Amino acid sequence: MMFDRFHLIRTDERKDYGEVRYIMLGLLDERPVICVWTPRGDAIRVISMRIADDDEREIYWRELDRSR
């Protein structure tokens, strides 16, 4: 898995992509990032990755605090 620490993951149901996609929020180099990915056989195909916006960062830190 890309994030070895705490991370959030949910199914991307914004539209029908013809495949199952996941949205993951986690830390990469101590920065919250969003990664959209799909499983492909035994591999993971990263579709996009970006630095999390302010709202997403707030969600990450809030959920991390809740998990402790």
Offer a few descriptive terms.
globular; alpha+beta; four-stranded antiparallel beta sheet; 68 residues
Task: Summarize the SSE layout with pairings.
Layout: E1 7-11, E2 22-28, E3 31-40, E4 43-51, H1 54-67
Antiparallel strand pairs: 1-2, 2-3, 3-4
Structure description:
The chain is an alpha+beta fold and 68 residues long. It has one domain (7-67). 21% of the residues lie in helices and 46% in strands. The chain has one helix and four strands, in the order E-E-E-E-H. It has one helix at 54-67; strands spanning 7-11, 22-28, 31-40, 43-51. It has a four-stranded antiparallel sheet with strand order 1-2-3-4. The longest helix is centred in the last third of the chain and has 14 residues, at 54-67. The model has no long low-confidence stretch (mean pLDDT 94).
Distance between the termini: 21 Å
Overall domain count: 1
Structural class estimated from helices and strands: alpha+beta
**Share of residues in helices:** 10-25%
The major pleated sheet works out as:
4 strands, antiparallel
Report the radius of gyration as a whole number of Å.
Answer: 12 Å
In short:
The protein is an alpha+beta fold and 68 residues long. The protein is built from 1 helix and 4 strands; from the N terminus they run ββββα.
